[in-house]
Amino acid sequence: MTMQVAMFGTDGLLLASDMRVMKQGLGVRGDYSASKIVINYERGIAISCAQDMVLAKRVAKAVISDLKESDREYPIAAIEKITARIVEGIDRKRVECLIVFSEPSARPFARLFYLQLGLVDSDAHCDQVKRGSVEAGDGENPAIFWRKRYYRKTPIRSLAPLAAHLILSAQKLNNAAIGGGLEMLLSDKAGLFHLDDNSVNALEEASASWDKRIGGLFAGHKQRFTFSQT
After folding, report:
1. What's the rounded Cα separation, in Å, for the pair 111 and 109?
2. 1, 87, 183, 220: least buried by Cβ within 10 Å?
3. With contact defined as beta carbons under 8 Å apart, do 164 and 28 qualify?
4. pTM for this structure?
5. Can you spell out the DSSP letters for 41-55?
6. Would 226 be classed as within a structural domain?
7. Residue 38 resides in a domain
8. CATH code, domain with 53
9. Mean pLDDT in order along the chain per 10 residues (230 residues)
10. Residue 158 counted as domain residue
């Protein structure tokens, strides 16, 4: 399982993900920490991968390598065709990707597409997300509350704490399948940028502090209650 979120800001787009990858195949069940975002800086494309991680990464790499520049302006049909080719003949296929095209020359400096296969039917479906925010992976995780309640279209650097807290809260609520750390990518007029370890560590420490403080607010609330007989 995975928790990922993409958020449009006033100056670009933010993409964040956890990093826990579940081992697949026979043998003892386990996991390891690895990036779930495939990035090609030269082409200005970043794709987060969820559901079947091996298959989703195959799809992501194929989209990055095989998508023609002539299809980039209207890429939906080409993305669906590439995905269908990669998964052909594979049973029990489930893929979910958030696809970011960096567009430094025009606002909002990035375009976002949501690709899913196997969640509704066996066909690949790709749609453009033109505004707001969207998650992928564990769509029933209660941590999505943070996005639904507090997302506002502000500069992407001010959205980074919200995205980080959503991902890290999701880990606490489903730590059997979500975890392994945090990664985050920003796309603005200067291009694609992957946050370094120092920035990620600071966000993780801040999120832990916010979590503790919020819990303390509830536990520490003092109030004299009155009661009604009716």
Report:
1. 7
2. 220
3. no
4. 0.94
5. TTTTEEEEEEESHHH
6. no
7. yes
8. 3.60.20.10
9. 96 97 68 95 97 96 98 97 96 95 92 96 96 96 97 97 98 93 97 97 98 96 92
10. yes
Is residue 121 packed enough to be buried (19+ CB in 10 Å), middle (13-18) or exposed (0-12)? exposed
- Containing 199, the helix (H) or strand (E) segment is helix 197-219
Name the residue with tokens 């579940």.
22
Domain that includes residue 121, residue range: 3-219
Residue pointed to by tokens 């790709």: 126
Distance CA 42, CA 49 (A): 20
3-state secondary structure of 226: coil
Q: How many CB atoms lie within 10 A of CB 24?
A: 11
Provide the β-strand partners of residue 187: 13, 192
Tell which residue, 179, 138, 197, has the closest CA to residue 21.
179
Tokens of 193: 């940028």
Q: Residue 117 corresponds to which amino acid?
A: L
Number of structural domains found in the chain: 1
Exposed e or buried b for every residue in 105-118, given b needs 16+ CB within 10 A? Answer: eeebbbbbbbbbbb
- Residue 108, token pair as written in the block: 């909002």
